[in-house]
Fold this protein.
Amino acid sequence: MLVGILKRLGADEVHEAANGTDALDIIERLDQAVDIIVSDLDMPEMDGMELMRHLGDSNTPSSLIIASSMDQPLVRAVVKMATAYRINLLGSVDKPPSPDILLQLIESHDARKNQHRSSRGPSLQFRLEEIEAGLDNGQFEPFFQPKVLLDSGRVLGLEALARWRHPEHGVLPPFVFIEEIEDGGLIDKLTRAMIERATAWCKTWRDQDLDVAVAINISIHTLTQVGLAERLTRYVIEQGLEPRHVTLEVTETVAMTDLGRVLENLSRLRMKGFTIAIDDYGTGYSSMQQLDRTAATELKIDRSFVTGAGKQKSSRVILQSSLEMAARLGLTSVAEGVETLADWNLLSEFGCDQAQGYFIARPMAAEEVAEWIKNWHTDGRHELPVQAG
């Protein structure tokens, strides 16, 4: 039945497999990658969860749709699992599937999200020495993703996201190198590079009369350094900026032996005028305990509770509760993973302050930012979400 629906929806080529084992065999035999895999969960021999593990381990460059009649709490758990395996999950549908809902998920497929994944051979791996050489040679740079106000669409800041501009492999995303950097003790060097280059670009944009700030991820390890707040403040001022032009995003849990130093630095940085953001709120890396401990002024809600929240009751409840809590605590709320107009409208309805995601813009090279901001404000694009809401 599903094959028939897909063909009626216009799929050019559909392959059918009885279970995960058969599916992997078909994927291996094909000359080109499958665009979208639609998989059940309860299957003989190899079920859908094991199939997802294999797809994740082999970096298969395909999007995934889960089609299952299992109860919704289980499906939601598997959805989170697929995300943890770094699979580009388009969503889930009940069995029997509605053609309209299935078509919406298919139309959200974007092959560019899978461009760094390859099912042909192992994924890119680099020795720590190669990564360190790349850092020393200035090959690591920030790409920037805009943050905009939901009530007006005005661009007020950009998050700096680390990228490796490799001389042979082009621009590489964090999952290629971040684990080795953290395990190899290079996170401070990467953080320093991101701060230096992101603040320099911020000064350039502000000199062009663009009233923007930059947000930079900072590791807990860096926050344990005595005197960090003073050094960072001095550096930012020497760059010609003010601390209020820089947001420091804290991701990792602060439950550690150096908790005192971390909280001292965060408090000092806040006192100096930096904005402190709790990143990925709602995941295992961030909790209400962090909000109580740190001098945070901004709450960034994880994309897993934002993207498609209108279709997932649990995500919608968590999203709304998080936004209400942020408002009561006097924190600025930022939603990550805003990918559709429906996401934008739901956030507007729930009173979110700022939005960030593909619906607004993908991360872009620094050289593209000024022109993008000018176009966003002059071609009327920034008004569309507000009008639609």
